[in-house]
């Protein structure tokens, strides 16, 4: 080990590689493995969106842009949010285009956090927020929601704020949720907003899966508590554009101005042709997610039916493309050991629920962003594995 490594940032040194990616890489080496691991649409980016990027390249649009995003993209993004969710953001003052939703999370938390601050994180949740909080010098306060249908209750939120009232800076919401597929309805959000509005804290609302809401219409926290909410979204899930890396963050002008500084100093500006593609997606692909959503619902129903037949139980996944399934009683309830054994013996790869923080142990996350044939094969193998374990 280099002597210089001891002089590196201690917060970085305290981090470990992403468990989800490490697990996925490990099981990918197993021959004939069926993977339902990563949260990535298996659809192609819509043709009209790809053509917009190609045209931008052919038109030599290859220079730096405004660090907040091109004017056309910010206008299209603001119009999309207004049309879909009734959000009213000034594209010049309240919208920043970011390097995916991850870039939005990083810029927002870096801009708002002072060392020693605490941030309330309802769990289970995608673990990405935690290392970013740690890098900023904050402490996550986990609130386990597994006993409340995986929805943060106003009572639990109030208790977490009261217990950290001198340090709490923000609360993070992610809905539809990764990994559970559960979402928040308007009445849920209003109750949480009633609590948040009594305190000087920010709600960081990650709504990247908003267009993949199956039961009813997605309601944004930004429409209920706009003065204290930063809304994050993007084109990754709605338009099958994960690799294009275009997200956005919107909110009150004074807060957005601070977030914009971090984003500018981190990335300078987004890739120009990717911005042209995203503008086309927002402007002329308002409903591009509809055929994908229809297919996801079919896959969800196929997966849930097969899992329940095998003895798993699942919270109702009414958004995103995940099922968070409880491992059947009588099997190894350590989710990591279960997933490794399932991969080895049945050649099916799922993600251990424990990776999604408190409330996740005893569960597995299963992505149905895969073909029906792949899902059916996975279900068949899982059912055989459970039957085999039950007779031991």
What does this structure look like?
Belongs to the class-I pyridoxal-phosphate-dependent aminotransferase family. Keywords: Aminotransferase, Pyridoxal phosphate, Transferase. With 392 residues, this protein is an alpha/beta fold. The chain has 2 domains: 5-44 and 289-391, Aspartate Aminotransferase, domain 1; 47-286, Aspartate Aminotransferase, domain 2, CATH 3.40.640. The protein has helices spanning 10-13, 19-27, 47-58, 71-85, 100-112, 129-136, 154-163, 186-196, 253-267, 272-284, 289-309, 335-345, 372-390, and strands spanning 34-35, 95-98, 118-123, 139-144, 168-174, 202-206, 229-234, 247-250, 322-326, 348-349, 351-352, 363-367. The termini are far apart.
Order of secondary-structure elements: HHEHHEHEHEHEHEEEHHHEHEEEH
Give the name of the CATH architecture of the largest domain: 3-Layer(aba) Sandwich
β-sheet strand percentage: 5-15%
Please report the first level of CATH classification, the CATH class of the largest domain. Alpha Beta
Poorly predicted ranges: none
CATH topology of the largest domain: Aspartate Aminotransferase, domain 2
Strand pairing plus helix content: what structural class?
A: alpha/beta
Distance between the termini: 47 Å
Helix share, percent: 40-55%
SS field, number of helical segments: 13
Mean pLDDT: 96
The number of domains? 2
Domain Aminotransferase class I/classII large: 32-382
Family: Belongs to the class-I pyridoxal-phosphate-dependent aminotransferase family.
Organism: Lentilactobacillus sunkii DSM 19904
EC number: 2.6.1.-
């Amino acid at each position: 080990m280099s002597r210089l490594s001891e002089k590196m940032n201690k917060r970085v040194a305290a981090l470990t590689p992403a468990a989800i990616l490490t697990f996925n890489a490990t099981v990918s080496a197993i021959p004939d493995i069926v993977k339902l691991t990563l949260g990535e649409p298996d659809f192609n980016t819509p043709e009209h969106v790809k053509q917009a990027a190609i045209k931008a390249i052919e038109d030599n649009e290859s220079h730096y842009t405004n660090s907040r995003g091109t004017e056309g993209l910010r206008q299209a993004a603001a119009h999309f949010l207004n049309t879909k969710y009734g959000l009213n953001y000034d594209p010049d003052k309240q919208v920043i285009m970011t390097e995916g939703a991850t870039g939005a999370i990083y810029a927002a938390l870096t801009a708002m956090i002072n060392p020693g601050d605490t941030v309330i994180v309802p769990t289970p949740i995608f673990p990405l927020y935690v290392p970013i909080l740690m890098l900023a010098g904050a402490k996550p306060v986990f609130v386990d929601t597994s006993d409340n249908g995986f929805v943060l209750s106003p009572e639990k939120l109030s208790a977490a704020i009261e217990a950290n009232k001198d340090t709490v800076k923000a609360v993070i919401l992610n809905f539809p949720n990764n990994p559970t597929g559960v979402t928040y309805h308007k009445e849920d959000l209003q109750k949480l907003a009633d609590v948040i509005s009594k305190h000087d804290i920010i709600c960081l609302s990650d709504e990247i899966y908003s267009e993949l809401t199956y039961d009813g219409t997605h309601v944004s926290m930004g429409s209920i508590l706009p003065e204290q909410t930063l809304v994050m979204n993007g084109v990754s899930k709605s338009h099958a554009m994960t690799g294009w890396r275009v997200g956005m963050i919107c909110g009150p002008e004074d807060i957005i101005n601070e977030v914009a500084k971090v984003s500018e100093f981190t990335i300078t500006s987004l890739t120009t042709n990717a911005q042209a593609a995203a503008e086309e997606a927002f402007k002329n692909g308002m409903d591009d997610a509809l055929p994908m959503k229809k297919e996801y619902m079919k896959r969800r129903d196929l997966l849930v039916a097969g899992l329940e037949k095998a003895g798993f139980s699942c919270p109702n996944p009414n958004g995103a493309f995940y099922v968070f399934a409880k491992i059947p009683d009588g099997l190894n309830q350590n989710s990591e050991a279960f997933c490794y054994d399932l991969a080895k013996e049945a050649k099916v790869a799922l993600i251990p629920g424990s990776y999604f923080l408190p409330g996740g142990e005893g569960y597995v996350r299963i992505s149905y962003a895969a073909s029906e044939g792949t899902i059916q094969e996975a279900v068949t193998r899982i059912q055989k594995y459970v039957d085999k374990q039950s007779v031991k």
